[in-house]
Amino acid sequence: MGNGLSSHSARLPAHTSFLLEALPLARRTRVMDIGANPANRPAYADLVAGGGAEVHGFEPGDDAFAKLEENKSDAEVYYPYAVGAGGNAVFYACENGSFSSLFRPDVKQVETLGHWEKSLRVAQEIFLTTLRLDDVTDMVHPDMLKMDTQGAELEILRGGQATLSNCVVIMPEVRFFRLYEDEPMLGPLDQQLRDMGFMLHKILPGAVVRLTSSRIGRLRPAMTRNQMVDADAIYIRDIARHSEMSNAQLSHLAVLADAVFKSIDLVLRCLDLLLARDEIAADVIDMYIDNLPRNFHVTNTQEDN
After folding, report:
1. Is the dihedral of CA 97, 101, 104, 106 positive or negative?
2. What is the pTM of this model?
3. Residue pair 128/118 in contact by the 8 Å Cβ criterion
4. 166 partner at 20 to 30 Å CA-CA among 146, 219, 262, 270?
């Protein structure tokens, strides 16, 4: 059942290397990253460095794109395109480039967050043309889509349904507190993803800030930081409809759950389904568990529900 993908996986944990070897994978897992600004190390970085994944990224910012090109590996390809609804648009380059967006910052909203106001100040308005994801020629079909586009996530999904037809994980940044004028919040994005056959699996720890007030300086920030702003969410192909998923989709979902967003229960569910299809050996599941760190293991006879 092995495939040899783990031969380049020296930097990966034992359980991830074992999974790559045991699963019926014909190729590396494909990650598409829209808004691939290198300011933060992505969650999939170790999987790419270990030889288990490749990246197809989009970054319209000149400086950020140049850094990506300078530091990329053979497993990474980047495009200097702005992905969105298609057609002419304005790119609002903010003082802090991480906040730059196709949506104009909402001044009245942002002023209630105090110190974020400067970061979201527009330094330059850049006129450009956006591309629908489905209109990008010769684009691969990814197994995972990561989006950090400061409001454009909904437009990207609507314009990329053919490209995303085989995708098993979508990782958008979801907004709880509006930062930009007319940007879609969590509700419409969640409905779009469910309409595309995805379910919400987990929300990762995100940005929580203090609201501005006249006496806030008298109190410790750690005790008064309560306003949720945004977070990365993990949507997966609806696992209850697993009969509609191919063996390859289940395998890539297992790899991503293990190496990118640390959902070991989802890995085990995928392995059960692959075993029922006779796609993995009978001992693979227990061997995978044996390779997990010791803190995952039950230390008494009472198992958690």
Report:
1. negative
2. 0.92
3. no
4. 262
Q: Which residues are CB-contacts of 143 (< 8 A; sequence separation ≥ 6)? A: 29, 30, 31, 166, 167, 168, 169, 249, 252, 253, 256
Q: What are the boundaries of each domain within the chain?
A: 31-245
Residue-wise pLDDT for 45-64, tens only, equals 999 999 999 999 999 888 88
Q: Are residues 189 and 154 in contact, defined by beta-carbon separation less than 8 angstroms?
A: yes
Sheet architecture: strand order including 87-94 = 82-83, 122-131, 87-94
The residues, any chain, with a CB within 8 Å of residue 29's CB and separated by 6 or more, are 47, 52, 53, 54, 143, 144, 252, 255, 256
What is the architecture of the domain spanning 31-245?
Answer: 3-Layer(aba) Sandwich (3.40)
Provide the token pair at 66. 């140049």
The C-alpha atoms of residue 111 and residue 106 are separated, in whole angstroms, by 9
**Residue 132 structure tokens:** 């629908």
